Amino acid sequence: MNGAAADPTWAGGQISARAACVLCPNPGPMTLDGTNTWVVGEPGSTEVAIIDPGPLDVGHLTAVLEAVAGSGRRVALTLLTHHHFDHAESADRFHELTAAPVRAFGGGHDDIRPGEAIRVGGLEILAVETPGHTADSFSFVLPADNTILTGDTILGRGTSVVAWPDGHLESYLESLARIEALTRADTVTSMLPGHGPFVADAAATVSFYLRHRAERLDQVRAALAAGDTTARQVVERVYADVPHDVWPAAELSVQAQLEYLREHA
C-alpha cells in the first residue's frame, strides 16, 4: 500500500444494516489503520459471515466474536479475500473457535468460483474474481447494499501495491475494469475495503485507481527513457515523494510495472 498515515476518524463500526467492521489493532505503513474484519449478515438473521478474520491476534478475534455474540448471532461462514497474513493468518484458529467453514480461492481452502452466489442466513454474497494484488484475490458483492468488499484490491485511502512476482499488473488492471463495470451498471455504488475507511463513491474511486495506474506507467516509461536501468533507480525517481519505509514494496511494484511494459512492448 502507500504508507498513508492512520486516520483517527476511522475506527470501524456499523456501516449499514448488513455490514459492520471490527478494526484490528495492527496499524502500519502497509496496513493503514489496521485490517478491517467485516461482519456481514441479513437483518433479522441469526447467522453472519466474516470477511478476513485478520492476523493471529487473540484480542482481535475475541473482539470479533464478542461483536457477533452481542448481536445475538453466530458465525456461519468465513471468507478470505486473499491469503496475506494481515487478512488470513488467523483463519485456521478462527475455524477452531467457531466451527464455521473457511472459504477462499486456493491455499488449501474450498475454492470459490467466480460469479458464485454464496448465501448465509438469507444474505446473498456474490464472488467476483479480482486477481492482481495477489493471484488469489477475490472481492465480494452484497447486492442488497450495492456494495463490494474489496480486500486489498481497492483501499479506503491511498492506493494498493501490486507486488511482483505474486502481483500481476495486467490482471490487476483487468480486475479494476471488472469493478468499474459493476459501478457503471449500478450493481456497486460503495466499497468496504480491507484497509481504510468506508468508500461512499465507488465509481469515483475506481476511476481514480485506473488513472493512477496509467500515470505511474507513464512515469516508469519516462524513467526508463531518462536512463534508469534498475527497479531501484526507478523507485528513487518516481516514488521520491513516498516514505522510504515503503520503498521495498514500491520496488516490487515497479518490478510488476516493468514486467507489464515488457509484455506490451
Question: What do you see in this structure?
Answer:
With 265 residues, the chain is an alpha/beta fold. The protein has one domain: Ribonuclease Z/Hydroxyacylglutathione hydrolase-like (Metallo-beta-lactamase, Chain A, 4-Layer Sandwich), CATH 3.60.15. It is 34% helix and 19% strand. It is built from seven helices and eleven strands. A hairpin with an 8-residue loop joins strand 8 (123-129) and strand 9. The two termini are 27 Å apart.
Protein traits:
about 260 residues, alpha/beta, Metallo-beta-lactamase, Chain A, 6-stranded mixed sheet, globular
CATH architecture group name: 4-Layer Sandwich
- Topology as H/E string? EEEEHEHHEEEEEHEHHH
The helix-and-strand class reads: alpha/beta
Number of structural units classed as domains: 1
> What kind of sheet is the major sheet?
6 strands, mixed
Mean pLDDT: 95
Total beta strands: 11
CATH-defined superfamily:
Ribonuclease Z/Hydroxyacylglutathione hydrolase-like
Shape: globular
Distance between the termini: 27 Å
**Strand order of the biggest β-sheet:** 1-2-3-4-5-6
CATH topology: Metallo-beta-lactamase, Chain A
Which band does the percent of strand residues land in? 15-25%
Q: What gyration radius follows from the Cα positions, in whole Å?
A: 18 Å
